């Protein structure tokens, strides 16, 4: 039997791929419309696109980058929790909360992007990550751990 915490891990990975597709589906046509030729770009960095593409297009790219940052800690802590046999029950629920908040953060950032609500979603997901980390530490450092 597998650990329930692996389900939200897979969902967040799938969501990240959805954001990748959404980013490409909006960014590539915007680049073409702006006269940017991928074949001629040399040594550019992602922030260069902020100068030449509409901000609404860049919001998807910024969110995709965000999904490569803090969620990497989520994946790692979920693996620790799964390996310690504590990935069911409350830890699975907290992981689902984290994923739901990150998806809401993505949709908000990619569409409306008002920072005040985006920050609330980020902060709430960070609290869920802190809780998972504390639970992972308790499982790993517990005197009962083998």
From TrEMBL:
Gene3D superfamilies linked to this entry: Membrane associated eicosanoid/glutathione metabolism-like domain
Q: Which Pfam families match?
A: MAPEG (PF01124)
Instruction: Enumerate the UniProt keywords alphabetically.
Output: Membrane, Transmembrane, Transmembrane helix
Q: Which SUPFAM superfamilies match?
A: MAPEG domain-like
Location(s), subcellular: Membrane
- The membrane spanning regions, by residue number, are 6-25, 73-99, 119-141
Tell me the protein's name.
Answer: MAPEG family protein
